[in-house]
Amino acid sequence: MSVDVNKTIEENAGLVNKMACGLYRNNSVYSLEDLIQVGFMKLITALPKYDETRSKLSTFIGHCVKNSMIKFKKKNHGNFKIKRAK
Fold first, then answer.
1. What is the chain's pLDDT, residue by residue, as a tens digit (86 residues)?
2. What is the pTM of this model?
């Protein structure tokens, strides 16, 4: 499957922003824009790996982007823990 990168970025910009806002905590180590940038970079690099037989594109993008943001936070702010929603 050939995925149009520009169209996919435009369609999933809200998803990336929402995930970044959910994971962002105000601090001096990194900014919200840093998380958004990490998310978009992962979105672009993950698209060639997408397999439409395994999941929907938005689900795949969501997992890839969230995992890359968490990895970025752990690398730059070691004591990060995910709070589970109740």
1. 567 889 999 999 999 999 999 988 877 778 899 999 999 999 999 999 988 899 999 999 999 999 999 999 888 776 655 566 55
2. 0.80
Q: How many domains does the chain have?
A: 1
- The CB-side HSE value for 32 (13 A sphere, CA atoms) comes to 10
Q: What is the CATH number of the domain that holds 68?
A: 1.10.1740
Site of tokens 């994971």: 23
